[in-house]
Amino acid sequence: MHKIRLAGSHYEMGVELGKFFLREQVTFPIHLDQFQIEHGRRSEKILREIFPQACREIQGVSDTLGLDYLTFASWMLCMGCCMYNLERNIPGEVRGCTAFACCKEGKRIYGRNNDLPPYLREGCKSEWYIPENGNEFILNTSSFINGEEGLNEHGLAVAMTFVMTGLDKIRPGLNSCFLVRYLLEKADTVGKAIALLMDLPVASNCNILLADSGGDMAVVECTPFQKKVRNARGYGEEKLICTVNSFTSPEMRPYDDSRGNDYDSEKRYQVVLDAFADRFQGDVAEDVKALLRGEYGFMCQYDREPDFETVWSSVFDLESLRIFQTEGDPRKYPFALDDRLCRHP
Known about the structure:
The structure is a single chain. The radius of gyration is 19 Å and the shape is globular. Helix content is 28%, strand content 26%. 50% of the residues are buried. The protein has a domain at 98-118 and 154-325: Penicillin V Acylase, Chain A (4-Layer Sandwich), CATH 3.60.60.10. The protein is of the alpha+beta class. An 8-stranded mixed beta sheet has the order 1-4-5-6-7-8-9-10, with helices on one face. Strands 11-12-2-3-13-14-15 form a 7-stranded antiparallel beta sheet, with helices on one face. The longest helix is centred in the N-terminal third of the chain and has 17 residues, at 34-50.
């Protein structure tokens, strides 16, 4: 997993990313059909109004690589939304992933398995952002600039999970990965993140998990037409919130167009709930790692799926800001400490 440090103005950070791609000889074979071009261009106008800093960062990348800015930005805004012609577009749609957060034994811990087609693993990045006039944060991503999960300097974790959306229901707006990036940079608590998210136009179905160092946590189930805040489950003084690749709230389920093609979402969700209630009895962070490794039930065991696997796993301690991460299937690779956000004397 590439570790990249980005600091300064957003345009400067984009230039630095572009230089990284040049060094790594990364190319971008961008192929968009008319629907995607129109969606991307209309969404770019919205992104420029809401989050102009991200547009300047994209401009820095595209200028450095000699690519047309609007085409490049449009492609990024189709990711995880309407990139349905998978054989011609990289990255493909994100359809796996389990994310959860819990409060137990005085600890606030977040965990995630990021499940993707294996060809994406080599391009995954853990980007350390130190932007001018924004929060410092770590963004874990199979893309760049936008991402699947992250933790900021205030102890706020933000993560997305993909929920299938029919093309006729997609609307111009921010895709789930740009929602993650925006909230990491702009919010410091779950309450602030929810307030911001409720005003953002969402392009397609997704879940946004939020958890902070004060113990507040929630999932916002999002569609282009409606958002629903789902609060954590209580277990006495302990609590848990989990999200997979479907909607959990009954009123949101009709928006889910996966038709069961969601890599056993319901099974993964139930395993997390059962493990927290019955198996978490020791060090919370270690229990979370064991859960992600599949020791408490089905989580990452995609052995019968030739083109799908867990490409990284993460555990965030929301108080100490320590991150533990694997670079691959957690059954095969150890969790390594990432303390870049920690304040060292």
